[in-house]
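Quick start: what a row looks like.
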Amino acid sequence: MTAYIVRRLIISLFVLLIVTFIVFVCMRLLPGDPLMAYLSIQQLNELTPEDLERLRHEFGLDRPIIVQYVDWMKKVVFHFDLGVSILLRQPVLQLILERLPITMYLGAVALVIGSVLGLFFGVVCALRRGAWIDTVFTFLANLGITMPAFWLGILLIYFLSLKLGWLPTCGYTSPLDNFWISLKKAIMPVLCLAVAPMAGLTRQTRSSMLEVIAQDYIRTAWAKGLREKMVVMRHALKNALIPPVTFLGLFAAMVFGGSVIIETVFNIPGMGRLLVNAVLEQDYQIVQGGVILMGMIIIFLNLAVDISYAWLDPRIRYR
């Protein structure tokens, strides 16, 4: 098991290295200049070309891209220094840590709700195959997979906030400050983030359960007169969970990736909105720092999924 975990960890770190390099290069290939966004028109008129070159040197923008990347990775690996924001002139790590808990809170709640409901609906659909409840839930799952999260967010704002006035339109309040207001503000963004994993797991669990309950040992359990709950929980569910569990890492990435759009739609001051603003303003340091931290979170979640997968199916450990 240890060798399996180490192997998966090495592969994940290699993927993270490639992703950070691609983002690093792409940000510098975008048209525009971060110094132009940093300086006002008046400052640009007052500065000489020598002053601009000095600023470029100060921010490290005058060196080759490969050299910039290597220097940045050295700071990250040995000092966990993500640099200083070009526009905000604050440490990137500080900016991220101020907003990351908000994204983690919304994403974790959405992932838990989506996973639990998706597994439950999938099992129900499999056990009631062909019934009206199977037809309804399968249709809703297909609809949830194809529906863009931002479009669902706009619909929820229009109906639940503007028309009915049940929920606040946007914003964020910490649960530690006011739990009730925080709950009301979190319902719509959490629902938008939870729809994709819930729909995907419903389909995967249904398909897996149908395959498992068709096996001989399940038919034998039914023939012995065991209750449905015992057959499902003790014999069918563990084996049926193996395929859906492999998708949890993908759904976690979808949730945290979707937060970029959802936080913008609902005006939530989280990591997603910070990254959107940084991309628009070409603040390289924030984008790079955000990508590497979000990548580390997704790697950790995928590693947890791989471990649980190996626990559910011991054959995986020895491959």
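That is the whole record. The radius of gyration is 24 Å. The CA atoms of residues 104 and 256 lie 8 Å apart.
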